[in-house]
Amino acid sequence: MISTLHIKNIGIIDEITINLNNGFNVLTGETGAGKTLIIDSLCILAGGRFSKEMIRSGESISFVEMSLYLPKSGYEDDNIVISREINIAGKNTCKINGRLVTVSELKKFMKNIIDIHGQNDNQSILDISTHIELLDDFASDEIKVVKEEYKALYEKYINIKKELAKNYGNDTEKQRKLDLLEYQINEIETANLNLDEEEKLEDRRKVIMSFEKISSNLKEANNYLNNSVIEGLEISIRDLERIEELKEEYKTVTENLKNAFYEIEEASRDISSFVNEDNFDENELNEIEDRLDLIKNLKRKYGNSIKEILDYKEKIVKEKNEIENLDEYILKLKTILNDLVISMENKAKIMNNIRTKYGIALSQKVNKELADVEMQNSTFEVCIEMNESTKFNSNGLDKVEFMISTNIGEEKKSLAKIASGGEMSRFMLVLKNVLAEVDKVPILIFDEIDTGISGNAGVKCGEKIKQISKTHQVICVTHLASIAARGDYNYYICKEVKNNKTSTKIKTLNEEETLEEIARISTGIINEISLKHAKELRNYKVA
């Protein structure tokens, strides 16, 4: 549900914050006070179009934001913040939980969260692709199992179709492909690559490239150790040995020098071996350079590392085997596909029978309620066509579309072609009421659906919205007292002029204020008689 709506600089709205609630939220108030602007703001947050003319006069930026509470939404937090900012230059910034998204991403996200019905519609029901899902939800458990079984078959069907779509062309093209794969496999295998050899070659190359520096420093160190340091240590040790018995400290120093001598002598032998061992010829460097060039060339063709090159080889070996055994492989796939098609057709026919039955039931329920909202001359029908050319989709072979005729003698048309916005809103109210328990869109918004209705029809509309609000959050702008009287939470929208500028204000009404507002929109005046009528509407129970 929407818990908070914040609007800034939209039309005459300076800045308002509305704390909404679960259930039936009713917005009433003065004409031109900004009620529809609130609905427009919700449309903007749902990814609707925005005109720069909507930015408040004298301002450069408009900003709308809502806080949604959506359990099991897939987000880490059940509380989600949606915001959209538009400036006078046309720059558009949309965010979901602080993350920048495009308008199309925002629209896609909000599509299954909010349905807006009224003057500026954002109705998911107008999308024909949703009709089959709504009908299946209405059919509920009866179609659920068979549909899941069908979808499991359909997934296998799609995967096999993708395999069969791999086209290696005619025999000449197949041979060209095989020749190319053979060449690539041979090139990689001939290289006889080892996973860690490139690193070892680079290290050896580095040593060779620095050979002169290494050699001269080793020789100089060896020379000094053998001609100066070791000889000097030997003389020093002999001299100290002659006097070590005379004083304990001399003996300790002598021992330390002997230990140092042995360590230095060992280091000298190591350095001498390095001098003798670290040599190379020019051919070794050339061989290393050639090998590294070969690896670099293979990386350029087949991967960014030796591992990727070897992985690629495994992949093309498999592909080569598939092409060589293609006829047998295709025959096997086609046999499996034919079996799948037979099973899917059977499941599709079962689903078609179930949908046909529930399509009739849904049509009857909707038609029964249309008279309640003064659409007694309208006829609704769920049209189901089964595709005989076996063009399977994720729902089977059926095309489902909701059709309606709003006048006696007129042919039924698609919902999107209904001319009257008021008729569309009232029809949506009836349909939503029938589908309330299975409709997965949690937030419904009705903008002045009471246009053209009054009396008992208004009472029935109010009761239907009340019923819907038991399973959805409903936000409704109305001028009809019988609808306002059904509200769980009532809000009053008005205008105020301050510093020669008009601004919208909103107030949450308590019970006494709600009765006064119902009285006002019912008769235009607030007195004992209108208040009594308001109480009667508030407490009225439909038989």
Verbal overview:
The protein is built from 16 helices and 15 strands. It is of the alpha/beta class. It has a six-stranded antiparallel sheet with strand order 2-1-4-5-6-7. Strands 8-12-13-3-14-15 form a six-stranded mixed sheet, with helices on both faces. Strands 9-10-11 form a three-stranded antiparallel sheet. α13 (455-468) links the parallel β12 (443-447) and β13. The longest helix has 45 residues, at 326-370. The model has no long low-confidence stretch (mean pLDDT 84).
Q: Report the CATH topology name of the domain at 1-113 and 442-543.
A: Rossmann fold
* Beta-strand residue percentage: 15-25%
Number of extended strands: 15
SSE class: alpha/beta
Q: Uncertain runs with pLDDT below 50, 5 residues or more?
A: none
Instruction: Give a short account of the largest sheet.
Output: 6 strands, antiparallel
Regarding CATH, which class of the domain at 1-113 and 442-543?
A: Alpha Beta
- CATH superfamily assignment of the domain at 1-113 and 442-543? P-loop containing nucleotide triphosphate hydrolases
Note the gap between the termini: 30 Å
Residues in helix, %: 40-55%
Mass-distribution shape? elongated
